[in-house]
Specification:
Blueprint: H1 2-11, H2 31-36, H3 67-71, E1 79-85, H4 91-99, H5 106-116, H6 118-121, E2 127-130, H7 135-141, H8 145-157, E3 160-161, E4 166-168, H9 181-186, E5 191-193, E6 203-211, H10 215-226, E7 231-239
Parallel strand pairs: 1-7, 2-3, 2-6, 6-7
Antiparallel strand pairs: 4-5
Helix pairs in contact: 5-8
Length: 242
């Protein structure tokens, strides 16, 4: 096996998933690209994971909520976390993975997700659930990027993956083409739970690539709650700075 891996690396050497530079190890990002990405680290909102851009006035070591979370009386999510900020330095990693068949990036990206979700794993969730694609979009794209992330996350976390219970029943307009209220309206009744008996009383982690307005995650969470899910966590590769 050692010699086989050595031969594969000689023919197809590991490359940085951002710039394509040949790497000595399968760590996925060269040092230059790693330093360009704005990874999300403390201080951030203790519930939604939104980074605090202005750190003045924050008490070191104290778990604090952002303004939006302070207003929520019954939050949908127990915790939300993201690995890095979605900006000019990171967006092509997401777009390549999502739309340009760069599925070899999945394991590296799942490793980043696993690190970002460290306090979610401490909660001992029962299931990992990818945000689903409609069957027509899946047929066109040939893979669900969120399901690929779940595959590797399940291996690293030793948490079961559920690919079947949450489904997308409407082939809606891609969210990237919409904004604000249009995104929320676009997703009404787009998702459904097919096997509620598999989810009742469970604590689940929703996995997606990017959180922008949160409309997709919120709509998924609503139908999961109706199906009897106890706690819902959300873990995404990236989130916008807003």
């Amino acid at each position: 096996m050692f010699w086989l891996n050595a031969l594969i690396n000689l023919i197809l050497p590991p490359r940085c998933i951002k710039c394509g530079k040949i790497l000595n190890e399968h760590n996925g990002l060269c040092s230059d690209c790693f330093n360009q990405i704005q990874f999300i680290s403390a201080p951030y909102c203790a519930r939604c994971g939104r980074p605090f851009l202005n750190e003045s006035g924050l008490k070191s070591g104290k778990k604090q909520l952002c303004g939006q979370c302070l207003k929520q009386k019954r939050p949908l999510f127990t915790l939300q976390r993201s690995a890095f900020v979605y900006n000019d330095e990171s967006k092509n990693i997401i777009l390549d993975f999502k739309f340009r068949d760069k599925t070899a990036s999945a394991e590296t990206l799942a490793n980043l997700l696993f690190t970002a979700g460290h306090d979610i794993w401490e909660e001992k969730p029962d299931l990992l659930i990818p945000v689903p694609l409609h069957r027509m979009r899946l047929l066109h794209r040939r893979y669900n990027q969120s399901a690929l992330l779940v595959k590797y996350l399940a291996q690293k976390s030793d948490i079961a993956a559920d690919y079947m219970s949450l489904i997308r029943r409407q082939n809606t307009i891609p969210q990237v083409q919409l904004s604000g209220n249009a995104r929320r309206h676009n997703l009404k009744k787009a998702f459904a739970v097919r096997f509620p008996q598999n989810l009742k009383g469970k604590n689940v982690v929703l996995i997606d690539d990017v959180e922008t307005t949160g409309s997709t995650l919120n709509e998924c969470a609503h139908v999961l709650k109706k199906a009897g899910v106890r706690k819902i966590y959300a873990l995404t590769l990236a989130r916008t700075e807003i």
